[in-house]
Amino acid sequence: MSVTAFAPETEARFALARQVADAVLFEGYLLRPNRGGAAGNRLRSQVGVLVPPAWGADREEHDFQHTECLMEPRAGATLAVELRFLRARRRTVQRACPDGAFETVPELRLGDRNLVPGDEGTEERVEAVVTVDELIHGEGVTLPFGRPAAEESEPVLDDDGRPVGRTISRHEEISGVLRLSAHELDGPCRVTRLTAVVENTSTWTPVDGRAADRDAALPRCLVATHLLMGLSAGSFLSMTDPPEWARSATASCRNLHTWPVLAGEPGRADVVLSSPITLEDHPAVSPDSPGTPRGASGTDGILAPGGPVDAMHTAPAAGFPDEYGVMRPDTPWDTATEAGFDPAHDRVVVAGRPVCAGSRVRLDPGLRRTDAQDQFLRGRTAKVEAVLHDVDGSVHLAVTVEDDPGADIRRTQGSFLYFRTDEITPVEDEA
What we know:
- It contains 7 helices and 22 strands.
- By secondary structure, it is mainly β.
């Protein structure tokens, strides 16, 4: 019988693999301040996109991922599975009209902000724990999942607190299924082939058939789809470098639009990450990028060098643009694509004072859009390293905390903390 509660030890084993998955699949998409023109901010450039079956037909995109790998489970072992993906949330911008109605507009200017429509990604998870015996001796496990359509409206206020418009964020209905099965292979050594299939089962059909724009299908897609699988007792075999006795069995495994590697703590083989990007076993977040890729620290969670990308298992050229690397101070700003923006020299007025690189500010993290770690920085002073503009036109300040013994290292690596202008107070005039 399947259950959906992970034990603490399972959570601990998955934590490291999640960091890698975040760095590979989620980093770069609305996860750190970037201009709207940056490739990483366009959800359509993501890998691991599972499209609705009706839209994917006759196109070079797929509505499923098929993973197979080998494992040696011990008696009574359970298998924990976590399916993760991004779900597109489409945002439109509306201006308030004098008669009380709202008009959809391509942009809404608000002082130092410029609100624009776009697609945002929200993380979704499907979790299950099943017994290996259930997979081997039964007919497998089928786990359907779905998310209903939803819409949220949020007022937009000007600097004086007057309503000037609103944003409408909408999720479309999505549905899918996760299928798990296992089969003991014949041979001198007891080894089991595990099969995991993820499908987009959306019944949505484009009204204009083949002429439908991909943007119409995107809100019904599973984006950056990947699997984490862990054994409570036993181990997986490496698909990249299997033992000699298992090479023929490994070669018989079928992996379509994804590739499984050993993940988690080095030296262990009880966790597998199946990703649309082919990696080496035990991929790790680069030492240049301490912290969680999507945390409030704003660090860039890139992989340590050495993980090859196999074109056979990689999504189309969308891949990873240069911006997925560590942002370093000596990297020139791309004035050709980001004309008019220069983080090292841009300035913004806060509380009547100009703030730019070199300014000192006091931190006052907001409660709505931060985590507990940021609250420990409340009242601390920091140095502004750059002024950045994100996809919706909001201004972010990249800072290093004063009296931080690692500030020089963070500055060299470009590993900054990020705060909005309403989360800081200038403590002196610009440097």
